Amino acid sequence: MPNALIVIDVQNDFCPGGALAVAEGDQIIPQINAMMGDFDATILTQDWHPQGHSSFASSHAGKAPFDMIDMPYGAQVLWPDHCVQGTKGANFHADLNTDEADMIIRKGYNPDIDSYSAFFENDHKTPTGLEGYLRTRGITTLTMVGLATDFCMHFSAVDAAKLGFDVTVLEGACRAIDMDGSLASARAAMQDAGVKLES
Ligand code: VGL
Ligand code: ZN
After folding, report:
1. Is the pTM of this model over 0.70?
2. Which positions are catalytic?
């Protein structure tokens, strides 16, 4: 069965020194690079927000990063400005091997809605097109790695499993933000959805 490696958001802003740095985010890169040749397809995702994106605390008067807000599509964490289109922070980490990628899919470019998942925006309805890409290539089995385990990985893996893909998350090649127990609840949600968690 054709398989794919999905590499979530290994971008400067999610690595040490970045605007929304994930502890040890860069340490997973050698392992990810080493795996790339082992799959029928390699897909990279790129968080790609316009300036003033609605997920940024700076877009909401009186709000601070990591506050919560109610959006029309549900609760939303407010983040520091990050992965702004065309900035260094939005670039892939320089050590990530991007040459092997068959496709790069961007997400979060709609100003009014965030998109943690590589498959659907945070309304859980608006597709990114990744499902169609995978299906038309006959890919049924996904191995997922990258950043951050408890947000973009969590939503991407759960959506992939719900769509019927066979999904394994390699936790050793992921790192988490882990705010207010978000890592534990993400792990539980992924397992409930039928995602295999491996080290
Ligand atoms: C992410 C928060 C905001 C992620 C992206 O890649 O996990 N988290 N935007
Ligand atoms: Zn983002």
Report:
1. yes
2. 9, 107, 152
